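task queued by scheduler; priority normal; single chain, no ligands, no partner chains; default sampling; output format set to structure tokens
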Amino acid sequence: MLKIIAFLQKIFYIYPRIMPGGLVSMEKILFTVNNDVSISVADLVLIVLIVVVFAVICFSIVRKFAKSKKVGIFLSYSHSNELEMSKVKKIVSSANDYEIYDFDSISVGQDIQMEIKRMIDISKLFIVLFDEHYVKSSYCSMELEAIISSGKPVIPVIKSNECALELPAEISKLKYLIISDDASWEKVFEESLHKQVKLISQADKLN
């Protein structure tokens, strides 16, 4: 181990001094180091393993940091609307800048209410799909109450104009999107989504 430490010390000591002349090959570094430090093949293998482990750790940290930069989007809907929400989720999933949270994000054995609260807390934007089942569901009502209390942006999506009559006062004042039989609503939804995310990103930069 002392040989390995001495070997690494030599690399970090020599490398900055032979760098000014341009990029230096590893062979030149090893040749220079081996003049002073005798190291076995087993030690070299161990050094390579240490470097690989260090690289993996750095990659994991960078990946985790990049993931945290994604905009969290919470999808709130009744299970009777899974077909319509699957279309919404497909559009949201098409971009890598979003982290999607919904009921399916909860693992078996986890506390449902605590997980929903946690996901709502970390989300920056909410997409709520309203229909007659949603407004009558006690679970959906609790979700919506937490969403409204968060004060964060909401994109309301409804299945028909009749559903608009049952929207809560805090949501009814927002411009909503109606899911139509054709695919025209998908383009409008995608544009609205990107616009909201852009506004959120701009606000985050100011903060």
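post-processing summary
- The first helix runs from residue 2 to 18.
- The first strand starts at residue 71 and ends at 76.
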